[in-house]
Amino acid sequence: MAIHKKQVYLIHSWAGIIAGIGLLILSVTGTVLCFKSDLEPIVYPELVAFKNAQPVKSYDALYKEAAEAYPDYFMLRIYAPSERDETYKAIMFGKKNIEDDIHIYYTQTGWKQLPDRWLHVVEELHVYLLMTRYTGMVFNFLLSAALVCVSITGFWIYRKPIFNILSFKTPLQLKSLANWHNNIGLISLVFCSIMGSTALIITFPSAFSGPVKARVLQTEMISGNLDDLIIKSIPFKGDSTEKLNNITFLHDKLQFHYNNPFYKNGALGEFTRVVLDTKTGEKVKRSGKSETELMRALNSCVSFHYGNFGGLTIKILYSLSGILLSLIVVTGGLLYFKRTKKISWNKKTVKANAVAVTAAQRFKQTVTYWSVFFTGFFFIGALLGLFMGQPFRSGVYLTVLLLFPFVLNMLLLAVFLLFYHLTRLIRRRKTTQFISSYSSISLYFFTPTLAWYVLVYVW
């Protein structure tokens, strides 16, 4: 199946048009949330961080106090303080309405609910688009898929200029709006791929599993002592350097998340999750360092998405990249309105007797393009890993995260083509070319990606 540039351009344009406003919102709010941990003590000084914030109390006492202070809610998760002057944080869901969630912090006078200040609104806008939890996750999943689609097709359309710029054959040009759009896209291509890929992984389970169901959570008070269960989970930690990050209350089970404090939120798989039965205290499951490198990489996507590793340098880089993503959306929108008056692509068609691309040439092109993706992803991952002392592992993990959309895309494509061939409702030539081009791109990128995934999984 031949790839038609006009059809790929059509995919790129419509994906950007449909998701434009949503991506603009996510990029602006994401730029702010890069510094969430630094802004929280400023916005909520009486709650998040204050002198001697950590109380000399047990987790069991904290758990029971929260249940007593908020009887209409049940505990979902308790977060341990990460710094000396930070306090305990918890998330609770409503017993009558599970969509009603509250964030509480333990102060010197007990548990206090997080007030609705601007940072809280920014976070809700970024995560749920100010919608209900499930609806917001579905929309975020679609926006993430669109961002990945725009990144892939953008690279495909402008691959020759990209190669020329990277090989220093042609300089960056900023003479026109199109130049600005293309060059900003080139600079932030990897970042857009990171954001789209990791957001897909984060939102995929929530979007396809449906709304959160109360039956999978611990809606009633546990009968055992929480501190005793914590003690029973300690022997299953990955190593002695791991500290308790959070406790999640599942139905008849508790999940204890331990991670290395240097690799926050389990970056590079430096974490262990221990699931214990609340009644017997026996181990139900252990994940994290006992998992394959593939699963550990997928579980590390939260850190890669929010940039909460590597310190202030990573946060600044993520924030600047978020601004660039906003500029891509704005310049892309301006280009679209400009081109509605005058079609941008050339009307001339390729001669019918043009020499067809041979299978060997197509294979060579596929290897070249995928190698650029792979090398770029691995190189960026290695650079991020320099801040954590593990460049090779970071490079491996990042390639896994960024190649994930190709696998997901192939599955979605298979479903789409199944319905298309069953119904045969659309027979127009342009539509057929569109589907052919989309299928070709998916197949070319899926095959080497699958091989890479098999290697990482076996490893």
Describe the structure.
The protein has an eight-stranded antiparallel sheet with strand order 4-3-2-1-5-6-7-8. The chain is an alpha+beta fold. The two termini are 34 Å apart. It has 15 helices and eight strands. Mean pLDDT is 82; it is low at 343-355. The protein folds into two domains: 1-44 and 115-343 and 359-459, no CATH class; 45-114, no CATH class.
Topology:
Layout (H helix, E strand, L loop, with lengths): L4 H29 L2 H8 L15 H11 L3 E7 L9 E6 L6 E7 L2 E4 L4 H11 L4 H25 L1 H8 L10 H11 L1 H21 L16 H8 L9 E8 L2 E7 L11 E7 L5 E6 L4 H7 L1 H6 L5 H28 L19 H28 L4 H33 L5 H30 L1
Antiparallel strand pairs: 1-2, 1-5, 2-3, 3-4, 5-6, 6-7, 7-8
Helix pairs in contact: 1-4, 1-5, 1-12, 1-15, 5-8, 7-12, 8-14, 10-14, 13-14, 13-15, 14-15
Please report the distance between the alpha carbons of the first and last residues: 34 Å
In terms of DSSP E residues, the strand content is 5-15%
Order of helices and strands: HHHEEEEHHHHHHEEEEHHHHHH
Biggest beta-sheet profile: 8 strands, antiparallel
Number of helices: 15
Question: Would you count the extended β strands for me?
Answer: 8
Transmembrane segments: 12-33, 137-158, 184-208, 316-337, 367-389, 395-420, 441-458
Keywords: Membrane, Transmembrane, Transmembrane helix
InterPro entries: PepSY-ass_TM
Protein name: Membrane protein
